[in-house]
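Section 5: illustrative case.
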C-alpha cells in the first residue's frame, strides 16, 4: 500500500468516530458538559425545557423524540441544547440547575 494513502487513512478513520465521543451531555460538579463545550454554573443565565412535537423546527418528524423535551441552556454568548428523553431526568436536571442558580 502506498505510504501517503496509508497515512491519510490513519488520520481520517479515527475522525469518523470522534463525533460520537463529543456527542455527550453530563452534569458535573462545576457545570454542564454539552459535547465539547463546558458551561460553568456561574455562566448559565437561564434554562428552559421545550416540548418536542410535530411542529418542532429540528426534531418534530422524528418519532423517537416526539413528546420528549429539548433542554435549552442560555449563556451570555450562546444557547446550547440537548434532548431529554424521560420525565425523571427532566425533573432531576431542573432541580440541579435551580439549586446551583440559587447558590450562585
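Designed sequence:
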Amino acid at each position: 500500500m502506498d505510504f501517503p494513502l496509508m497515512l491519510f487513512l490513519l488520520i481520517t478513520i479515527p475522525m469518523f468516530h470522534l463525533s460520537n465521543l463529543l456527542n455527550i451531555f453530563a452534569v458535573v460538579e462545576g457545570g454542564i458538559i454539552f459535547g465539547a463545550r463546558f458551561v460553568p454554573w456561574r455562566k448559565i443565565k437561564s434554562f428552559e425545557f421545550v416540548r418536542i412535537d410535530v411542529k418542532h423546527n429540528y426534531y418534530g418528524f422524528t418519532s423517537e423524540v416526539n413528546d420528549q423535551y429539548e433542554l435549552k441552556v442560555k449563556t451570555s454568548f450562546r444557547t446550547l441544547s440537548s434532548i431529554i428523553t424521560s420525565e425523571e431526568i427532566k425533573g432531576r436536571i431542573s432541580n440541579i440547575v435551580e439549586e446551583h442558580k440559587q447558590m450562585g
